[in-house]
From TrEMBL:
The keyword Hydrolase does not apply. Keywords: Oxidoreductase. Pfam families: SelR. PROSITE patterns: MSRB (PS51790). Residues 26-148 form the MsrB domain. The keyword Lipoprotein does not apply. InterPro entries: Met_Sox_Rdtase_MsrB, Met_Sox_Rdtase_MsrB_dom, Mss4-like_sf. Its EC number is 1.8.4.12. This is peptide-methionine (R)-S-oxide reductase. It catalyses: L-methionyl-[protein] + [thioredoxin]-disulfide + H2O = L-methionyl-(R)-S-oxide-[protein] + [thioredoxin]-dithiol.
């Protein structure tokens, strides 16, 4: 289980190696994504609080990167943070997320990105629920929910 100390170490000392890399030109990303998805994932934008379709999603499944389809988060670790963005306590795998120090807007935060394609996802904060204490605050537009199929 990742902790805030691990997040800080990754942001300062380097991130774990991803399982694979996906790299595209800006034109290729623009062709693949909607304008809003491009603004958020490739230009480090943010959607308005409570505006994202995945804020109120509660179906079982995996939350995958909208750019490269890499699994990022599992629905079992999603929680209601009241912030207006989908929130998670842990990534699906330690090397799924990339961490970088973000000092934009006059504050210091830790940006989270897809470790496979560098898509901006949101930020992680040390104010989440136990046991990890982490809150991954993620833009809905940066993910797609791959719902679990119902077993018969």
């Amino acid at each position: 289980m990742l902790t805030w100390k691990d997040v800080i170490n990754f942001s300062v000392k380097g991130n774990p190696e991803p399982d694979r890399r996906v790299e595209k030109t800006e034109a290729e990303w623009r062709e693949l994504l909607t304008a809003e998805q491009f603004r958020i994932t490739r230009q480090k934008g943010t959607e308005r609080a409570h505006s994202g379709a995945l804020c109120s999603a509660h179906e079982a499944g995996k939350y995958n990167c909208i750019c490269c389809d890499t699994p990022l988060f599992d629905s079992t670790i999603k929680f209601e943070s009241g912030t207006g963005w989908p929130s998670f306590t842990q990534p699906i795998k330690e090397n799924a997320i990339k961490y970088e120090k973000d000092s934009s807007f006059g504050m210091i935060r830790v940006e989270v990105m897809c470790n496979t394609c560098d898509a901006h996802l949101g930020h992680v904060f040390p104010d989440g629920p136990p046991p990890s204490g982490l809150r991954y605050c993620v833009n809905s537009e940066s993910m797609q929910l791959q719902k679990e199929s119902v077993k018969e």
